[in-house]
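Possible regression after last week's pipeline update?

I re-ran a chain I had predicted before the update to compare outputs. Posting the input and the new output here so someone can diff against the archived version. Not blocking, just want to make sure nothing changed silently.
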Amino acid sequence: MKVLGVITARGGSKGIPGKNIKLLGGQPLIAYTIRSAKKSKIINDLIVSTDYEEISAVAREYGAGTPFLRPSEIASDKTPHVPVMQHAIKFMEENKKTRYDLVVILQPTSPFRTPEDIDETLALLIQKNADSAVSLVEVEGGSHPMKMKKLEHNRVMPYCMEEMEGTRRQDLPPVYKRSGAVYAMRRDLIMNDARLYGDHIVGHIVPKERSVDIDHPVDWLIAEYKLDELKKQGYEF
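New output (post-update):
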């Protein structure tokens, strides 16, 4: 199977200016994603989709392909991933005279993924003949759906799940959210159906200590702390 890896790295971040090339542990943020993706045993072609030449230059420095600058009409902060991926797939297929079977989206904002995270997510997609596969992380007790509430005329009500009084944190049923590290899907799901997930989605669980999705300045501080801790455990990124 032919697999295209796309690192989506739009410029113009409002929460953290220059986020994708800001230095984390002395390296541009995007470098972590490029390095892990280049070690994948399943990805055939790896590119960066960006609208900023500065990001493109850093990406090339770390070994990623930058065959185009993303058009401005699909580079706003409100642009969803589908048109971005459709553009990348169409460009690569036309220029390489090939057709991909699977595509994988890798966001620089989740820097602590490993090559195994990528390959195991892709393998799960293939083995289960699913429409898509995503990396998941277990939700912390305080953020569990049972703990979520809504207000109806000042009355506290369950948002989606009833919380039994006296339920201990450790007794809450396991629940997961997308970690942001790996999004893999069949090429035709994007190109023909304009969807990322489809109806049959499978999930690969990643550990909490390697899960971070950098969106706000406080997330950056968390990432710096996690990086130091992961290095102590012997991780190399």
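Follow-up from reviewer: compared with the archived run. Residues 140-174 form one domain. Marking as no regression found.
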